Amino acid sequence: MIELSDDFQQRAKDIKCVIFDVDGVLTDGKLFFDLNGQEYKSFHAQDGQGLKLLQENGVEVAVISGRSSLIVETRMKNLGITHVYQGQENKLVAFNDLLSKLNITSDCVAHVGDDLPDLALMHRVHLAIAVQDANPSILSFCHGQTARCGGQGAAREVCDAILDAQNKLTNAVQTFIDG
Question: Which helix (H) or strand (E) holds 53?
Fold first, then answer.
């Protein structure tokens, strides 16, 4: 679990939107292609549940990725995530569009990343988080780092930590007990 420092918890209380990178965050970063060029990715089911929990508890979820993939589009659609930006060489363009669409400022946004293309967003958001196996050069720009690696439940850690800081996690868990 993310070490929940006082600073992290204070920042997490204000979050209304969490932006996730895909490769290396929602996946383990490995790219698989068959001989026909078909791409394959692996997503962790617990991450998906966490993304749904955020949405069900009033926190918007967005994806901004430098690559484009039909698999990502399909997975995000299955999770009910509508703010999906793929093929974003300059992630700031998508970031600014998202802020405008949601009518929010960067003061209530978190970003989860793993490598240099994420730095522009990490530098601008209120809460920047790196996955455990992130490139070390981005760590000094982050407010927290997951215990799990990308594609291995790291996104779920982030979702649970934000919901916990907002005092929403216990009730979210209770809904599963109640059925």
Answer: helix 45-56
